[in-house]
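Hey, can you fold this?
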Amino acid sequence: MRSILSLKARIKNIFFSILEKFAFSSDRNNKPIVHSKMRKILVAEGGGIGDLIRVLPAIECLKDNFPAASISVLASPEANEILSLFSKKDIVSEVIDYDLKSRHRGFLNKLFLILSLRKKHFDLIYAPDRGEGMREEVLMNFLTGVPHRLGFQNGRAGSLNTIKIELEENVPIVKQNLDILRHAGLQVTKEEIDLRIPEKDLLEAKLLIKQLIQGNTAPFITIQPGASWNAGYRCWPLENYIALIKRLIKELQLKVIIIGNTGDMETAGKRILKEVESPAIISVMGKTTLAQMAALIKVSNLFLGNDSGPLHIALALKIPSVAIFGSTSPEQVIGQHERCVAMRKNLACSPCYVHQHDYRPDCKDFRCLNEITVDEVFHAVKKVLSDNFHEGIS
């Protein structure tokens, strides 16, 4: 199976190379961006929750640079719910679904999407594509006929963008997303991610926490043990989470809430509850909306989890965090001033995934994750709580 997938990937890359070469030779648009002519802008980010979160400051900047323009956002159904938490959501005039798992899976479905975007006559597309789907998505952006296409370049991938910068391995993605705008000669007027949790969701979260802590002042933490993409390469072993939670409850008297999306990891929440067997832990995995999950993170004393969407929510909300990294790069995720301890192993092969377009995971032993010990994470949690713990839930 692995060899078949590898062969398909090589054939696909050859196909894209031919199309890129032909398209590049036919594309002669190097015209400067004229502000007065920018009436319709498309922000395209088809990745997950964390990817869309890290585009929000750029959306604000685009509106500030082109106040008369309408801004549409192309996003996956899994991620676009985060726009409801965007403090400036009113500047987004339209949200367009990009459903790679269903509606837009396959060549013909993508072609129909391209044709529908062409009919909208966008003047500029800002698309910070990176990673495995980068070449395909940059080519799709070219085929929409949008004259100004802003994004990354990584080797040949991204060559069809009219304004592009090289993707860097050791710089936070939020900053790199804004650097695309700087390279286009635009003003960066916003650098921080600003999420706002609805009051009703915050109230529900606080009520749930009060039931859990039962009137005492014990700190509580939210834990997210899953990941939606390549989970085997990003998730710390579940048995380690179970052993850690037992220690956190016994030795630090912590209260624990397990969070996460529906799907296979929902069974993980049930397994954790079964093996921990304590009134100090509850699981809402698969039982919350994104806003409700964000509210729980917001009112918690600490977030602990893998490199996945909830971690990006915690960082945006300035919640003290302990994040576990395996194949991915902490430097691309954690900003300089964020209160987050990155648990990682500096192996010769890691990080192996830094959003390169030709990434093909072939690891079998996941040493980068398996060698992070329960003791190491326990002491990291203890330290962060002692440095940042705020008492009580108002």
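Oh, and this one too while you're at it.
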Amino acid sequence: MRAKQVAAVILISATTCLATMWGYNRFIGGRTYYYSQDSGKVPVPANYARFFEGGDKSGPADFSEAASAAIPATVHIKTKTVKTVSSSSRHSNPFSDLFGLDPDDFFGGGNGMRSMPEMASGSGVIISNDGYIVTNNHVVDGADEVTVTLSNRKSFKAKVVGADPSSDLAVVKIDAQNLPFLEYGNSDDVKVGQWVLAVGYPLTLETTVTAGIVSAKGRTLDINRRQSQTPVESFIQTDAAVNPGNSGGPLINTQGQLIGINSAIASPTGSYAGYSFTIPVNIVRKIVRDIMKFGTPQRAYLGISYPRDDMSDDEKKEMGIKDGEGVYVLDVTADGAAAHAGIKKGDVITKLNGMPVATGAEMVGQIATFSPGDKINVTYRRDGKESTISIVLRNNTGTTSLIKTSLLDKLGANLETLSKKDAASLDIKGGVVVKGITENGLMDKSRIQEGFIILKANGQDVTTVDDFQKILDKASGTVKLEGVFPGYEGVYTYPLRLSAGN
């Protein structure tokens, strides 16, 4: 009798379990889930349904659910660039460690100049169901042709919507609908020691997933300075294996959310040697939104200079800088946001909106998520006393106006309005200082050198960066620039071609 009772209990339990599962499946069957994106209420793609239905019961050491969500949304990007090169020279690209294929591996030698295609390969991640894809700027920069291949091997010609060399991000678009895409996570929530997955197309292989942990945050390599005079770097460092071809691919958490775009590796050989570096998704989301809405990033500036992360102990001691106490203000930009709010040289910034910042990279990473006109709370220490003030961030022209894509963006130069103090010392009304010149920009193709102060453009006075931009936007062909070099007599004149083909 006892055995029959036990059997009956087991049978009832099993029947109850089956009935519950049947009812639950009927309950969720056919349901459409939604979450909000910048574009509005968007249906959750099929690759995410399991997370909304409570299907992620695999445990912390099993990444199959997260991987299956990410793989369909990760794409292979191939580019072709036709260039006239010397057949005796070797191809060199500062991002070749993650960027793809060296054409000299496929084309033979010879003499003289010739046109030849450069083929390269990288990765990208779909961020909307209508075909918007984010990748690295260095993956698509200068490409004549961009092809995107999905995980199901369907290929599309893509157009570059916009790019930001400062953060090494770009947005491309394919003509497709109802695509699987990745949900944005929050990189501020990323913790050192947590598991992460890198997804991409390394070494021209099919989709590959590798796992690792976050080993550091707020890293800077100064690698984006090769593309921009105003680099934005605050990398997430991981030990997930990343190799050539992973550039532009996603870094995800164990919930399958996008937490960053893989960008670089630290390696003596060009292949994975233990560390990879990822652009945090909070920066990605802001830059991508700006590119899609305005055509160019609306970058906010605090308006200070601060010590390099690699500054020697002796240099720090000489300046009275103590490690770990915050970001030491070496100087403030005239008419910048910090100067306007009362920040002074020698202050130490310790928090932004209540979030501690210990390094310049951490500060840059936080500022990069804001736009000109945004108000933030800045906590700083002066003479041993800590204070908090509200600061309205500004753009690189010292205003809160929207910046539109213009010829100024193509110059490849870091320009600043001359301070009133320096203008008075030079006995001029004002001008624009060329603080730096990026390789291969339009200004790099002229004879202009760093330190040049632009006073006139096409005969019109230039006293601010905004003045200069307005003149360029109305100009065409070649612009005549007049200006001076501090410490040298006379006015120098340079022709500046506004397109590489002129």
